[in-house]
Amino acid sequence: MIDCVMYGNIINTRNAQNLARRIRGLSGKNLRNLTPYASGGFGKQKYSPDIDVLENVDSIIQAQAKQCKISFKLNVYSVKDSKIVLTPLERQYSVNPLEILLHNDRYYLIAAYDDSEKIYFFRIDLMTNICRLDAEKAKTREEYSELKDFRRDKFMLEHPFMYGRNVKRFHLRIGKEHLTQVVDAFGSSIQVKRVLDEEDMVEVSVRASEDAMKLWLLQYGDIAEAFNIDTEFADKMRKSIEILEEKYK
After folding, report:
1. What is the structure's pLDDT at 22?
2. Please, are residues 69 and 138 in contact by the beta-carbon 8 Å criterion?
3. What are the C-alpha distances in Å from 126 to residues 49, 74, 138?
4. In this structure, what is the dihedral angle of CA atoms 69, 52, 55, 119, given to the nearest 10 degrees?
5. String of b and e for 16-34 (b: at least 16 CB within 10 Å)?
6. Which of 29, 99, 151, 210 could cysteine-pair with 110, CB 3.0–4.6 Å?
7. Handedness of CA 214, 216, 222, 228 (dihedral sign)
8. What pLDDT score does 186 carry?
9. Which residues have CB under 8 Å from 214's CB, separation 6+?
10. Could you give the count of Cα atoms lying within 13 Å of 67 in the half-sphere of its Cβ?
11. Tell me, what's the pLDDT at 4?
C-alpha cells in the first residue's frame, strides 16, 4: 500500500507523502524496517499537479451512469519563468465518455467525438473543469468498432502507451536475454513462435497498435527487430529513423 501511494500518479506529491508516512506509522516494526524509503527524500521522484484525480474519475463515472456527454479543459506542461507549470489549452473539449482505464499508474479516459468513429485517449490527471452535459446524450462503447468485445486486460496489452490505433499482430525477433522487455510491454500473453538456439534468439508474436509498436521499436531498436511487416508500417519506421539520424548525425 505504501508503494502504491508513494509511486503512483493518482495522489499529488504532498498528500502522498503525508499518507505514506501515516501508513508507516500505523504499521508494525517489521514493516517499518522494510520501508525506510517512506521518509527522507520522498517527493522528488515525481512531478504531480495539484489536481484531484479521483474526483475527476467520479465526475466521469456519474456522467456515464446518466449516459451524458462531458466537457473539460485539458492541461499540458509548459515553461514559465524557467519553471515547469501546468497550462490549460484554449480548447474546451466535449466528448462521449466511453471507458475509464487505470494503466501505468494513471487513469485514462477512452472517449470519442460525435462526428468521428475514432476513439481517443485523455489523461484524467490532466483534466480540469469537468462538466456533465445533461442535455446531451452520450454514445456508448458498443457503437464503436474499435471497442467491440472490449476487455480491459486485452486492450491494455495492445496499447502499452495508451496511444494509437489499428491493432494488428506483429512478429518480433529478439535476443533471449532481452525477452523481459517484450513481456514488460506486451504482457505474458505473447506467443513464442520459434527459438533459435544457435543464434541465442527467439521469435515471438504480439498484438499491438501500430503507433505503440513504432514507439516501442524506436526505444528498443538496438535489441529487437520486427519482420514480415507491411510496406506502410516499414515506411513509418524508416521516416522516424531518418529524423533521428538527422538529429544525431
Report:
1. 75
2. yes
3. 8, 6, 22
4. 30
5. bbeebbebbeebeeeeeee
6. 99
7. negative
8. 86
9. 164, 233, 236, 237, 240
10. 6
11. 66
How many Å apart are CA 105 and CA 90, to the nearest integer? 27
Q: Which amino acid is at 79?
A: V
pLDDT attached to residue 116: 87
Q: What is the pLDDT of residue 12?
A: 66
CB 125 within 8 A of CB 76: no
Query: Is 134 in contact with 70 (CB distance < 8 Å)?
Result: no
Distance (Å, rounded) from C-alpha 176 to C-alpha 194?
A: 11
H/E run at residue 127 = strand 127-137
- At residue 8, does pLDDT exceed 70? no
Evaluate whether 121 touches 108 at the Cβ level (below 8 Å): yes
74, 92 Cβ separation under 8 angstroms: no
If pLDDT is split at 50, 70 and 90, which confidence band does 30 have? Answer: low
Q: Which residue type is seen at 33?
A: N
Task: Give the span between the Cα atoms of 67 and 4, in whole angstroms.
Answer: 32
